[in-house]
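input
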Amino acid sequence: MKNGINLKPTDEKLIAHLYHNSRENASKIAKQLHLSREQVSYRINKFESQKIIKGYIPLVNYSRLGYHLTTLIFFKFNKQNSIAKFKEKIKESKNRIITVEILSRYDLGALFVFKNEKERNEYLSEILNQNSSEISKYQIIEPYFSEFYPLKFLNNKQSQPLIFQEYKLDEYKLDEKERKILSVLNKNANARIIDISKATNISAELVVYKLKKLKKEKVLITSKAYFDMEKVGYFYSIVLINFNNLSKANQNKMREFAKSSLYVDSLMFMMGEPNCYIQIFHKNVSDIHNTLKNLKETFSDDSLIFDILPLKNEGESINSIPFL
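output
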């Protein structure tokens, strides 16, 4: 593969599987991918040593934890040398999940979670006032629904998406033991049960019970490997879309499109303009063109406006549960 580490089809299938669910044991993964347990363990160790796998992160439903606002902000800076300084400023925020560099009309994007509008307004007012001389413009996007898809272009046959943002679900109150367990997973979502037990001073049996409960309650959605996809020749772009009419029927139609589209890995719906967001993995520009061409054909009776934001990477300094 040009400009990347050459992957075999088996490697691609394994990467796609780990991207969607990394906590499964090697034996179960091996059975699903028709490999031996030793082959799975060897390949995972290889991905980690090559820094293709950068870590393992939990996906949680923030609304179930009382954080009902997910806020994506794009920033444009007056000077390029202000970007690194700003990234460091927001890195330890109890609201920031991830930061990503953008290669087009914005310089930086950051994803935050907030309990409510008051917390969001106070935080944004603070960072914008503190950096008023550095930030020339910004755009705020707040999804009320988000969905995450398997990596279909890497031959992942799993078709079911994972919903990781729904509007104002009932809050699940974490107890102290559950907070400790999630704190360990936040550092390494693939931590072994015995290691979680030692780190939290909670019995292994209770750790297993609590993890099952958090999944049953739809607090902990899944655990995923976090990849440096550019090392294997893939790149990322955000496509902001504005539908003239984002009706319920069009939302369902868009979900079906994203679910089946080869390169789309996530979808968001927002109020205002733009009212839709997709992230695309691609090797080249033609992959983006084909996705947008198919999208326009799917919605041939509607008016669509696109804004493409190529990303330097999928993100950095990830803190999936910053408020713990």
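quick obs: Residues 62 and 68 are 7 Å apart (CA to CA).
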